[in-house]
Amino acid sequence: MSEQETELREVDDHLDYGLSVVFIGFNPSLKSGETGQHYANPRNRFWRILEGAGLTPRLYDPSEDRELLKLGYGFTNIVSRPTRGVEDITREEYAKGRLELHAKLKEYRPKVACFVGKGVYTEYSKKSKVNWGFQPEPLIPEMHEFVAPSSSGLVRMSLEEITDIYRHLQTFLSSEIV
Predict the structure, then answer these.
(1) pLDDT digits (tens, 9 = 90+) for 45-63
(2) Number of neighbours of residue 133 by Cβ within 10 angstroms
(3) What is the reported pLDDT for 5?
(4) SS3 67
(5) How far separated are the first and last CA of the chain, in Å rounded?
(6) What is the Cα 103 distance to its own chain's centre?
(7) Which of 21, 28, 109, 135 would you label with 142, given CA atoms 20 to 30 Å apart?
(8) How far apart are CA 2 and CA 169, in angstroms?
């Protein structure tokens, strides 16, 4: 572990009962570990994706991440330790994180668990093949599981392609309100 990583802190979950969506990432970036905010890396496209998909009424800044609770959105990760990349996460951390995430989802029961990256979902579900969007057999009954592309700037999909997938989530949430 680098000296920089030892000075980082875990990013607090933003969870509550009655949420529409909990966004679940792999783990916090080093920048998020420095600031204490979710999706704080300037190269991460998360906040632009939410606005572009119509999930938020405006572009939010990572410093406003807690404000999204008012919109019915929460945040957590499968692993809480900030790292440079997912390759720095150990098998033991995934095993522990999988159990902790399942317990959080069972307790808070959001309408939708949105996994920000196929890898996050495969680590959680232990399913080897998944498609984008809603999953046919959620691990927790009566909770929808939605798999969306990672918002990392390293992902080789265009912002528009990613945003289109997130629009399916927005469409579902809009239909739930009616």
Answers:
(1) 999 999 999 999 999 999 9
(2) 14
(3) 43
(4) helix
(5) 49
(6) 16
(7) 28
(8) 38
User: Of the ranges 13-22, 27-36, 54-63, which one carries the lowest mean pLDDT score?
Assistant: 27-36
Whether the predicted pLDDT of 110 surpasses 70: yes
CA–CA dist 68, 81 (Å, integer)? 22
Q: Which helix (H) or strand (E) holds 16?
A: none
DSSP conformation letters of 135-159:
-SS-SSTT-EEEEE----TT--S-H
- Give all strands of the β-sheet with 133-134 in edge-to-edge order: 73-77, 21-25, 112-116, 144-148, 133-134
- Neighbour count for residue 164 (Cβ, 10 Å): 16
Question: From CA 6, how far away is CA 18, in angstroms rounded?
Answer: 35
Average pLDDT of the chain?
93
Q: What pTM was estimated for this model as a whole?
A: 0.93
Residues paired with 144 in a beta bridge: 112
Specify whether the CB–CB gap between 13 and 124 falls below 8 A: no
Tell whether the model's pLDDT for residue 4 goes beyond 50: no
